[in-house]
Amino acid sequence: MLRIEGLTTSYGPVRALQDVSFTAERGKVTAVLGANGAGKTTLLRTISGLVRPDSGSVHLGEHDISRTPAEAMPALGLAHVPEGRGVITELTIAENLHLGGLGRGRKVTPGDLDRVYDLFPVLGERREARAHTLSGGERQMLVVGRALMAEPSLLLLDEPSLGLAQRITAQIFALLRDLVAEEGLTVLLVEQNARSALSLADHGVVLNLGRVVADDRAEVLAGDDQLRHAYLGF
Ligand code: ATP
């Protein structure tokens, strides 16, 4: 589904990714793990065309998207939810969801909205409320819901658990699990909270200083004491 080969990305003299290769399979959750500065956010930004790689390639299905601009990505089925929950707080929940269809040039239908409200009932109950009234966890649900409005086949999620209580993170991860199972969505999940991420993910890739240091099934990574202590912090 998503195939990364030899990806190297720099910010001026700073090399953020170095020869990164891995595959994220269709209908699976792949976690990208690693400490601060490991290159996780840069990886997502490079995949979604916000940053240009120095070398290497990114394939989404049959398409080489290595040099495709970010604006063209939604039409190819890629949705990127950046860190920081960018909901528009002055707009209602329903209005925020409508915006999600724009990137793909499609009109969001009542059926689309109902799908999100089924998935996240709390958003349905508050659909006409302005987004500033939502809690952190609810805003995170809204940005995921908004990304789904573009009907992506690949969802890139950057630190969806940031600042959320463990219980809320678990709830959001359980919903993601359902989504992947029901819709065959492919998810690339960046997380600092490696323990939670590996409980959700099928597969994991561990980065350290821009390089891949491990790439394996989630339960293999979670069971590797040395790796956990050295890179995963649990
Ligand atoms: P975090 O969890 O802190 O976001 P990360 O694993 O996502 O970390 P990146 O943000 O991708 O890591 O950063 C990788 C490296 O690139 C770091 O050394 C960082 O300082 C550097 N870097 C990131 N963004 C920029 C930028 N805009 N300009 C210069 N250097 C940058």
From TrEMBL:
One of its GO terms (molecular function) is ATP binding. Keywords: Amino-acid transport, ATP-binding, Nucleotide-binding, Transport. Residues 2-234 form the ABC transporter domain. It comes from the Bacteria. One of its GO terms (biological process) is L-amino acid transport. InterPro entries: AAA+_ATPase (IPR003593), ABC_transporter-like_ATP-bd (IPR003439), ABC_transporter-like_CS (IPR017871), BCAA_Transport_ATP-bd_LivF (IPR052156), P-loop_NTPase (IPR027417). Belongs to the ABC transporter superfamily. PANTHER family: HIGH-AFFINITY BRANCHED-CHAIN AMINO ACID TRANSPORT ATP-BINDING PROTEIN LIVF. This is Branched-chain amino acid transport system ATP-binding protein. It comes from Nocardioides aurantiacus. The lineage of its organism: Bacteria, Bacillati, Actinomycetota, Actinomycetes, Propionibacteriales.
